[in-house]
Amino acid sequence: MDGEELTEQETQLYDRQIRVWGADAQRRLSKAHILVCGMKGAVAEFCKNIVLAGIGSLTLVDNRLVTEEALSANFLIPPDESVFGGKSVAELCCDSLKDFNPMVRVSVIKGEPSSFDEEFLKTFDVIVVSCCSLAEKKSVNEKCRKLPKRVSFYTVDCRDSCGEIFVDLQDYKYAKKKLEDTVECQLSYPSFEDAISVPWKVHPRKVSKLFYALRVIERFEEAEGRSPGETSVSDLPGVLKLKKEICESQLLNEAHIPNALVERLVTNPTEFPPVCAIIGGILGQEVIKAVSGKGDPLKNFFYFDAVDGKGTIEDISSQS
Amino acid sequence: MASQQQLSVIKGAKVLMVGAGGIGCELLKTLALSGFQDIHIIDMDTIEVSNLNRQFLFRKSHVGLSKAKVARDAVLRFRPQVSITSYHANVKNQEFNVDFLKQFSVVLNGLDNLDARRHVNRLCLAADVPLVESGTTGFLGQVTVHVKGKTECYECQPKPAPKTYPVCTITSTPSKFVHCIVWAKDLLFTKLFGDKNQENDLNVRSSDPASSSDHAEDIFQLNKDETIEHYGRRVFDHVFGYNIEVALSNEDTWKNRNKPRPIYSRDILPEEPTKQNGNTDKNCATDDQSLISAMTSLGIKNPQEIWSLMENSRIFIEAIKLFFTKREKDVGNLAFDKDDQLAVEFVTAAANIRAESFGIPMHSLFESKGIAGNIVHAVATTNAIIAGLIVIEAIKVLQNDANNYRMTYCLEHPSRKMLLMPVEPFEPNKSCYVCSETPLSLEINTHHAKLRDFVEKIVKAKLGMNFPLIMHGAALLYEVGDDLDEDMVANYTANLEKVLSELPSPVVSGTILSVEDLQQELSCSINIKHRDEFDEEKEPDGMVLSGWQQTPLEKDDCNKTLGNGESTSKTLPSAPDADKYDDSDMVASGRKRKLDEAVNISGEANSSKKPEVLDDDDDDLVMLDDGDNGDPAINKKKRLQ
Ligand SMILES: [Zn+2]
């Protein structure tokens, strides 16, 4: 493989996982640079997973100061005001993450995801955004797609007992072992904007209800100028009205976005820690797959709802 | 976020976690974040460097400390108000009895071995406390719920015994690398550096038994007047040369097999090699056992590389030299340990030379160590996912929401689009000897078998009891415990050596024995049936327990087997082996079931039951202008809501 061998220290620390994905994959991981924006519970879980896995570097963005809400599902922030006073969420998470694995460089950048230029973004291999508005997601995703090199783009969000992951690996080639042979596989991903613009009418059958419910809420938050996750029970009538309108224009039977589900998501926008662990775990695995080139990456949405317990992959791209 | 009703059961719950390893660290964190207030955690292990890549509550400075205690302290740093009680102890200790269990609302297992899992299952049944059980291997994992009377218990489906190999495959006809590893580790390593008195099948059986055994007796002794170099070469030539020649002389064996090639040291290594480049000195400076290494002496660095036959041979001789010069006092009482660098080097080299002889591909030290140490693959992400699923299931159990209990599989490749697949739990197995009263029956030769055979092969090995008590009617035949009188102990010891039909209260065909474990509060009846003959090949124990099946052994033309994980002399997998299954014996010993396409977890099926994969059809998307309402079979099903 390209480059140096793993050090004795790395071989010892990563022994159990090298037995899962091999030494080549471990070397690729140790050279990967990852940017994450929005440090809520699911992202904290994700960061823990990839720092333990031994990536090269992790850069955190979250300018918020610590609030009760920021503490709720995030185990990276000590609940002691004398520690967190005056520090941003990203700075506090950084201190904890550094401690998990001294071999990974963890740092903080101030700023908003939408303000990052292409010069900056191209220094990364993977970009993960969370708690971002629809416009921010689209804009970061579009910038990634314009870069001279392929940068993997992910969004992740959890509300109530549900979670969503979106993946854009652009044109992704990877080797896959089939019995004795290794075959070259290729996947072509749409951008976030293209994926959500696919008319609902041409979707594959039985797409997760969560996909639709989250699109409605996303549109509601955008129209009302809300921050992501900033909804409460008083918004329910407005969201349900919007749901009806969208369903009519998309020719989708309204019953396929149950009001009870919409109600859960609107009235309980805070995260549920077990779901953060699950979503952060799946996202960690996906990023490890994309960086190491080992294993089939998911395309292009993933959903989990603790109520039915299913973790489902949905492929929503114009070709299908 | 959790609902108000969920929050109130969470706050009021008292939870017992068993295991603070890969799953345990994740679980303790997720429980604390989810609002659990009273958590008790038991783990007997201490922290090792190879834990740090996934057991994120631990740091390098914690190596050697109690997992349960360090995990507690780490979680208290971000959730100081939670009450966490840690126990650095074995869950099988008597202090953790049924009364202890009764104080908890639910027990959550994140264990690494079958034996402890069975034990906790029994305690939970006896205390009537629900159990959420889990396991992971690599990207695979599963979570199951066991509630007495409502769902099956952990032992309702028999667990396959640890993988064993027929002795003759190991001694004469290896066909896989693992056979060479077992030979190198359990036979050759033990013969050279372990207990000399132990029964050992190292020497190949020839058609003429007298010739090999006589010759073999002194061959493994270091003679007073020979150099260790000479001794090493003599052992090399005996096991890789002479023994192969003897095996070749038995022509029947090779009719349908590739013949092995004898290998002699003179063909591989120059006769008396020039003194090593003085590198041996590197080892002289230290008394630290972990730094004594044949690889270091020979300047071989990369554990991922596959060594040549010559390198393997040099490592083989060098390792013997180092054992006899630098670790002389260990020789004679060593047992293979995957963390003993020199032992791993020796076993790798010996297995590779044997593999070469039999035309089997050689492996790197890294891979050999994994096979020899039964090291299970483990990553942080799967453990995190499984811990999240455990908490979700635990909350349902606390709410007594039996209709929604699920067992969930975490898959590597999606099945029906799912990476996390919930399945409805099974009902209790009515003939399960653990959670039902169904008697077992045992065919045994009551005139030949001793009580000891019954205790070792059935009561301990098959029924998994630790403190058994065996009764025939009112007569006590045998008992284990700390508080027994001397004369009772003498009495039981005498009974052990008696054949069943000659016991003070004779056990004959038609006898019903009652076997109990007081700690597990498990008792079962065994109907005895006398039988004269047993097939040595198919029934190597000389007794057959039915009413409960264990998976059959790999068939071969001999009647003894060797395990890879257990030492050859002890048949009991009693001591929990930390790394034998890291966090799991799920794939190795998990229930084997058909689970639609998800067979990558379940392997071959030995259960006729097929779980219902939950697939609520209201997911079905029907378009307004779509005349076709989809699959009629789907529409037929009633919506549950
Ligand atoms: Zn049972």
Description:
Chain A has 320 residues and is an alpha/beta fold. Chain A has two domains: 8-192 and 271-313, Rossmann fold; 194-267. Chain A has 13 helices and ten strands. Chain A has helices spanning 8-13, 15-29, 41-53, 68-72, 81-84, 89-100, 118-121, 134-146, 192-197, 209-224, 236-250, 259-267, 273-292, and strands at 33-37, 57-61, 105-108, 126-129, 152-159, 162-168, 171-178, 181-188, 301-305, 310-314. Chain A has an eight-stranded mixed β-sheet with strand order 3-2-1-4-5-6-9-10, with helices on both faces. A two-stranded antiparallel sheet of chain A has the order 7-8. In chain A, strand 9 (301-305) and strand 10 form a beta hairpin. The longest helix of chain A has 20 residues, at 273-292. Chain A starts with 7 loop residues before the first helix and ends in a 6-residue tail after the last strand. In chain A, 53% of the residues are buried. The model of chain A has no long low-confidence stretch (mean pLDDT 92). Chain B has three domains: 4-138 and 378-400, Rossmann fold (3-Layer(aba) Sandwich); 175-359, Ubiquitin activating enzymes (Uba3). Chain: B, domain 2 (Arc Repressor Mutant, subunit A, Orthogonal Bundle), CATH 1.10.10; 440-546, Roll (Structural Genomics Hypothetical 15.5 Kd Protein In mrcA-pckA Intergenic Region, Chain A), CATH 3.10.290.20. Helix content of chain B is 33%, strand content 14%. In chain B, the strands form three sheets. In chain B, strands 3-2-1-4-5-6-8-9 form an eight-stranded mixed β-sheet, with helices on both faces. Chain B has a six-stranded mixed β-sheet with strand order 12-11-13-14-10-15. Mean pLDDT of chain B is 81; it is low at 205-214, 276-285, 549-557 and 566-641. In chain B, helix 2 links the parallel strand 1 (14-18) and strand 2 (38-42). With 641 residues, chain B is α/β, with parallel strands linked by helices. The two termini of chain B are 22 Å apart. The chains are: A alpha/beta (320), B alpha/beta (641). The interface between A and B is large, with 74 and 67 residues. The complex binds zinc ion (ZN). Residues 152-153, 155-156, 428-429, 432, 434-435 of chain B line the site of zinc ion.
